[in-house]
Design brief:
about 120 residues; mainly beta; seven-stranded mixed β-sheet; about 0% helix; globular
Length: about 120
């Protein structure tokens, strides 16, 4: 069983930056692919970014070039650096984990955090 705890959400003005963190309680964290998804009000949950166990990264087109996912295996933590934030980035952001390969579909992930709210004001 893997527990994921997100932090770092908050209120920021458009054009600003935030960094989300996700601490994982996995004994073999380095073997997990980690992902970030988000759900905006009234919308379906959508893929944001993922990083596999080799630190290969994947991004949704809407965030590519603005967001950066990274991991620190020594700290069992994955990060999402978000720059040039837009009001449409407002959502609850969820950290996810699955063994081995990264994925872009939410149904392929086994473990989920409770989410952290990100609000971008215009």
């Amino acid at each position: 069983q893997v527990q994921l705890v997100e932090s770092g959400g908050g209120l920021v003005q458009a054009g600003g930056s935030l960094t989300l963190s996700c601490a994982a309680s996995a004994s073999s964290f380095s073997t997990y692919a980690m992902g970030w998804f988000r759900r905006a009000p009234g919308k379906e949950r959508e893929f944001v970014a993922a990083i596999d166990r080799f630190s290969v990264t994947y991004y949704a087109g809407s965030v590519k070039g603005r967001f950066t996912i990274s991991r620190d295996n020594a700290k069992n933590t994955v990060y999402l650096q978000m720059n040039s934030l837009k009001p449409e980035d407002t959502a609850v952001y969820y950290c996810t984990a699955r063994l081995r390969t990264a994925a872009t579909m939410s149904g392929e992930y086994d473990y989920w955090g409770q989410g952290t709210q990100v609000t971008v004001s215009s």
